[in-house]
Design a protein that fits this description.
Blueprint (H helix, E strand, L loop, with lengths): L6 H9 L7 H16 L1 H21 L2 H10 L3 H13 L2 H27 L8 H5 L5 H19 L7 H8 L2 H11 L4 H28 L6 H4 L5 H31 L7 E2 L2 H13 L3 E8 L8 E7 L7 H13 L6 E7 L10
Parallel strand pairs: 3-4
Antiparallel strand pairs: 1-2, 2-3
Helix pairs in contact: 2-5, 2-6, 3-4, 3-6, 3-10, 4-9, 5-6, 5-11, 6-10, 8-9, 8-11, 8-13, 10-11, 11-13, 14-15
């Protein structure tokens, strides 16, 4: 008769493959984690400034500014603290970390809403559009980022890698995109950015918790005699279910990309005001159908190109009239507007002989 498998021995043997922390290293790590979960004035100020910087960088389409905002954003600290609390079974630390995280999210969203309200009818940059098209790869990136951040924090000789983790995690840009898009009636991009942001939060906590356990920072022996505390199991299960739920739209985006191809736009979108003006004009001219309304680059001299189609005879001066409508919506009488109207040919099949 076979002996039952000793799960505790297998688990301990698995943990032995990873470097564990000495007592002094544990104390130092706990101190760093506690600072990240405290919040305080410094956290609030840095979160406000980082969110403002990220919002401005997204509107400007400046990758460098967005990266700078990610480096100074303090949101990773409480998320790592939440992962550490799950591994340790520390309920009070877990509550504090989630509370600080929620406060940081509120401040970041408020800052982005304010910046977005100051820029109504903005022309979405490619930095903003990129956060509105997440997929499963973003989930894996967030999970890996949480694991790397926890490992780097737990190993003193790897602390210098945390800056790179902050860039890879990309927590702040999706949050800023939510606020900017909501103030400009772009609900589709705002919804996708919210999915991306929620995915990052949940995956980072789970990834960090896993690595902290592997580093030997799991629930103490006394507490683990009957397994992890009930709240740890419930919290972990809830986070795992959230990952599964969030994976559904991310998987759909992957399937859509596999059918239509990767998004590599050759043009830039026009502003909300310009597109709305063109749509209203076409409602008055039902014989015209819009094919494209776009900018070829971010340079002002590139202008705006409108491509339409019609199956009827063109009216005189309709191109000039539409160009004037676009210039008025753009707020510039000297804006370059190119209007192309394609004449549809009616194919009449000849009767068979």
């Amino acid at each position: 008769m076979k002996k039952p498998v000793d799960k505790t021995r297998l688990r301990d043997r698995f943990y032995n493959y990873f470097p564990t922390l000495e007592r002094d290293e544990r104390k130092q790590l706990v101190g760093q984690i506690a600072v990240g979960a405290e919040g305080g004035v410094d956290f609030l100020v840095m979160m406000l400034l980082a969110a403002t910087l990220a919002s401005l960088g997204l509107l400007e389409g400046s990758t460098a500014v967005v990266i700078g905002a990610m480096l100074v954003a303090p949101l990773m600290g409480p998320l790592l603290a939440a992962g550490f609390a799950l591994a340790q079974g520390n309920l009070q630390l877990f509550r504090d970390a989630l509370g600080v995280s929620a406060l940081g999210v509120f401040i970041g969203l408020a800052a982005s809403l304010f910046i977005g309200a100051l820029n109504p009818g903005f022309e979405p940059s490619m930095e903003i559009e990129a956060r509105g098209d997440p997929d499963v790869l973003d989930l894996l990136i967030a999970l890996a980022s949480g694991m790397v951040a926890a490992y780097a924090m737990g190993r003193s000789n790897m602390a210098g890698k945390l800056a790179g983790v902050a860039i890879a995690a990309a927590l702040l840009p999706p949050l800023a995109v939510i606020g900017i898009s909501l103030t400009n009636d772009n609900l589709f991009v705002a919804g996708n950015a919210a999915i991306l942001f929620a995915t990052n939060l949940v995956a980072i906590i789970l990834g960090a918790s896993l690595i902290f356990r592997l580093l030997g920072l799991h629930v103490s022996v006394a507490a683990s005699a009957s397994g992890s505390p009930r709240w740890v199991r419930r919290a972990t299960l809830t986070l795992a279910l959230l990952v599964v739920i969030l994976s559904a739209p991310l998987l759909l985006n992957v399937l859509e990309k596999s059918r239509s191809g990767q998004v590599r736009p050759a043009t830039y979108p026009v502003s909300t005001a310009v597109r709305r003006a063109v749509v209203q004009y076409l409602e008055e001219h039902p014989s015209l159908h819009m094919i494209e309304a776009a900018r070829q680059s971010t340079a002002p001299e590139a202008g705006i190109t409108i491509v339409l189609s019609t199956s009827e005879e063109l009216q005189a001066g309709i191109k000039e009239e539409l160009a004037t409508v676009v210039r008025n919506a753009r707020g510039s009488e000297n804006a370059i507007v190119r209007v192309f109207i394609l004449q549809e040919a009616l194919l009449i099949s000849e009767p068979a002989p």
